[in-house]
Amino acid sequence: MINKPAYHFAPSKNWMNDPNGTVYRDGVYHLFYQYNPDGSAWGNIRWAYATSTDLINWKRRGVKLAPETQKGEQYCFSGCVYPRGDGYLMAYTSIGFEPWAIQQHARQRFARASADFGKIERLYDKDLNENSQPFPVHEWRDPFIFSYRDSDYLLLSGICWREGKGENSVLLYRASNKDCTEWEYINILATEKDHVIECPNMLIENGKVALIYSTMTDRKVKYICGDFDGKRLWERSRGVVDWSLNCYYATNLSSSETGKTVLYGWLQENLERGDSPDGVYSGCLSVPRTVHIDENYRLHFAPIDTVKYLKDKDLQSVNNEIVSDSVNARISFASEGDCRVRITEGEREYMTVRVRGGEIIVGRVSKFPNAGETEERVRIGGTKHTFDVLIDGSATELFVDGVAVVSVRMYRSEKPEKLFSVKEGKVTGISAYTMKSAEISGE
């Protein structure tokens, strides 16, 4: 019994991964995402498209950006959409058919799109290639365009080879024309010692910035907060966006109707082998999160406010337990000191949340053959914590104190017997309700 998420955006079938081209304009949220129309495993990657007016209910609108094989293009990898005039500029990583194309021969390509994305014109003469910076770059990918102090900037990730040594980096470019089709290399903005970087994003708020990026080796999303002068990032703090184990990845950003910044992420299938739990679909979007930078250069996260409109039936806690077989619910509670709770508990299948000496440990136990047990540790400190848990079929997102999130894919063989139970320690303020399904339609 594998419960497909009911209010997390997912394809009707086949594979999806990174959210791309996330943009809000005139009351509509536009979402592009990496998609394989031919099966539930990775391959044949192009951009599919969906729209929403509330970030909860979505209309799938098919493939919009496909490889042009006659131009030597095999895949359209991740990128962004940037408003220009009454239309958009699309930027993406183009992968050809050459040997080692993904690692060494990527190009960054651009296209102009009409306001409704009905017309997309490729700008092949505007490619960024191996000569766009003064050194070779491998694993070069994932353009992200942002505006800062009347200039337009482009982020790319890659391994920069200088003096015979490779360095995992985020590269910074600045537009030299108003169309954002000519770019000048500026600097290396940030580095990671041991992890290849992907999907860099830049959040700007009240003069502060946060560089958000994914790291390929340990499959984490991290951030660096600090000050930016158009050339360098002056670091003030570092942190983790989501502490999940091989689950939450490849973020993107947009504005929102209320002026807040929205963070999108991919929830991949956390399986020991195989790409799909059922052979029909693979991957979903996280519930979009609002994100902001506080006065101490720390990121704060919350589920998008409109998720509250999916509230269905209140559930009662009796003796620190909520007896329900629901797998579409929202739970909130607070801990004081060390404690242990279980979520969606059945016979030998459950999620565990433990608080031990300021560390929060989130575990999964599943009888599903390809799932097994996982455990992730959140180093957050403190003795009191508040939790907000979104449960949706196989997708669970756990928000802690508004500053830490852990995403878990929970594969159940049977319905749970209890939605929530306290096993030890002091837990207060328990509340819960079931969640309705979102309206997600189209192919």
The counted number of beta strands is 33
Largest sheet: 10 strands, antiparallel
* Class computed from helices, strands and strand pairing: mainly beta
The overall pLDDT, averaged over residues, is: 95
Give the overall silhouette: globular
What portion of the residues fall into strands of 2 or more residues? over 45%
- Give the count of helical stretches: 1
Distance between the termini: 24 Å
Describe the structure.
This protein has one helix and 33 strands. With 443 residues, the chain is mainly β. A hairpin with a 5-residue loop joins β17 (248-255) and β18. The longest helix is centred in the first third of the chain and has 4 residues, at 101-104. The two termini are 24 Å apart.
Q: Short description, anyone?
A:
With 443 residues, the chain is an all-beta fold. It has one helix and 33 strands.
Search tags:
ten-stranded antiparallel sheet, six-stranded mixed sheet, 33 strands, mainly beta, 1% helix, 443 residues
Give me the secondary-structure topology.
Layout: E1 14-25, E2 28-36, E3 46-52, E4 58-65, E5 73-84, E6 87-96, H1 101-104, E7 107-113, E8 120-122, E9 137-148, E10 151-162, E11 165-175, E12 183-192, E13 197-205, E14 208-215, E15 220-228, E16 233-242, E17 248-255, E18 261-267, E19 281-282, E20 284-285, E21 289-293, E22 299-303, E23 311-315, E24 321-322, E25 328-346, E26 349-356, E27 359-365, E28 373-379, E29 384-392, E30 395-400, E31 404-409, E32 418-435, E33 440-441
Parallel strand pairs: 1-19, 4-33
Antiparallel strand pairs: 1-2, 2-3, 3-4, 5-6, 6-7, 7-8, 9-10, 10-11, 11-12, 13-14, 14-15, 15-16, 17-18, 18-20, 18-21, 21-22, 23-32, 24-32, 25-26, 25-29, 25-32, 26-27, 27-28, 29-30, 30-31
